[in-house]
Predict the 3D structure of the following.
Amino acid sequence: MEFAITFLGTGGGSPTMNRNGSCTALRLGGQTWLFDVCEGTHRQLQFTRISPMSINKIFISHLHGDHLYGIVPVIMGIMVAHKAHMNGILMMKQRRREMQSRRRDRRNDNRRLIGVETGGEDLIMMEKPTLEIYGPPGLYNYIGMVLSLSCSKMNYLNVKVIELVGGKEERGFSSSGSSGSNQRGRRNVFTSHYPEIQTPLLTRKFLEQNDDRTWIIDAPEPVTADTPVVDSKNRDGFARLPNDTNLGTERRLHIKAAELDHLSGVQTFGYVVEEQPPPGTIDKDKAVALGVKPSRKYGLLKCGISVPNDDGTGEVHPSQVLSNVFRPRKFSLLADHRMVPPPMARLCTNSDIVVHEATLSKKLGGGTERIKARGHQNAYNAGRFAQISGCKVLALNHFGGTAFGESLMTDVLTEARDGNGGASEIVATYDFMEISVPRGGYDFDKKVSSGTQLQSVQKPFSS
């Protein structure tokens, strides 16, 4: 049931001694999703509890280097980790074959030698894991070009690049004007197809924008009485419905994206991840008393679905047997921007935690004109956005190179609280900070004055 955020990089345009560039990890119990991958992220991962093998999705907000340049090393690191794991499996199988061979004929050593020689072919033929990468058009060409020019081989990992197309700032299919159109017969480098960079395990797909100006990346079907149980790879003996929070890598969540207004011609996305409505807690004694013994019916009752009792003489409703009901947890990430358009703002409503940039500061001249010119926001407006959107926790990140020291960070928090009006808990993130969202999400009502909670806010959320 893990739903935790690890901040691998909280700096702005350039890494500093105190902060690496942008990267945020969402840990979901058996799988990890990365949001933006600055250079140095591969090394940052070595200092965390995150296993590279657990990373199966990466979301890129835009193609600026401080959000993208670390993606190929991370891909290669994930592949190497899986290869080592697959090698371990093959070695175990090889030992079993050798033992069986010795039992059949202790005098025959050739079969053992043959097994070693064909091990590489066996490794290539094994089922390969998949890494999905989402982002703006041009992402596939960037990854493919870097892999090709660096002579990197993708043999043990399927990489699927899904580009979100159809947005206002797209510089691909729907683009117009000098920033996006082909000039003098030149190809559009964002969406053009380059056969020279093709590799079998790197594929490309396009995801179209919806009528509401959002992109639906994943939308699990709601659980009903006819929903089949998931054949979980956890092998724990439990039959689980698709909304079970203990499914591990089979766990699916609602994932949506929408555009942010960063800079003209730089298509930028924000992302929102929300759980399916999780199962509640059932009172077994009440259920048995109403004629329902432990069975698959308990799973349906936990999901809010009424079931007939065991003898078929009546119906048992969830309200009669559930002792606890949990709301789904919600995570939002807003990358670089000067304004949050309405479609993105609607997606963020009532988030448990929203990660929001605070590159600028009103105190240091980060007012409206500078926001427009730089394409970045200040802490005051971040606090204001969290208040309007009803977000429980506001996590500030993407700090500039001069954002260090207790005094300056206290000013940043004070500025954000002034804009927030005490509606949210506010934290100034730092590298390797972790925030765990409890089951059922945060349930607190902020009724405090701004500028008085630095200690009380930092302690609960820092690792």
The first strand starts at residue 4 and ends at 9. Residues 111-118, 176-182, 446-463 have pLDDT under 50 and may be disordered. The longest helix spans residues 71-104. The chain has 13 helices and 19 strands.
